[in-house]
Write a structure and sequence with these properties.
Elements lengths: L8 E5 L5 H11 L6 H9 L3 E7 L5 E10 L2 E9 L8 H15 L4 E6 L4 H9 L3 E12 L2 E11 L2
Parallel strand pairs: 4-5
Antiparallel strand pairs: 1-2, 2-3, 3-4, 5-7, 6-7
Length: about 160
Amino acid sequence: MNAVTVPNLELRPMARNDVPRVMEIEPRAYPYSWTEAIFKDCLRVGYSCWVLEDAKTGHLIGYGVMSMAVGECHVLNLTVRPEMQGQGLGRHLLQCFLEVARDRHVETVFLEVRPTNVPALELYRTEGFNEVGLRRGYYPAAHGREDALVMARHLT
């Protein structure tokens, strides 16, 4: 992993007017991306939605969505701009999410990841996540469906 190259990172809550900028990145980051309506629904229902920006330029670097309830957190989306991946920014964003979860007294964080997403798997494993299950046919794929590994990390 390379060091984070943007020195002035700012994590802030996502606002509805951030969604168009998020949608400039989302379809470039994933072949089966979330829609604008999904992000708006996440904001509407009160999920923990965040953007990571360069504080000097306002350049959107990444974003993500978590749901939290009763001591548990589920990372639903964690995305870094494709051209900025591989610089430690995803790790920084994940660590920020874990701090948000700790501040809200979360005990366990869960997430799903494609087994074929090797960089994400490496990130999650090195950040203390362990495989705890499998969701068969969870993700759309080019030729049908792809399983998801369920990973978890305890924060206590």
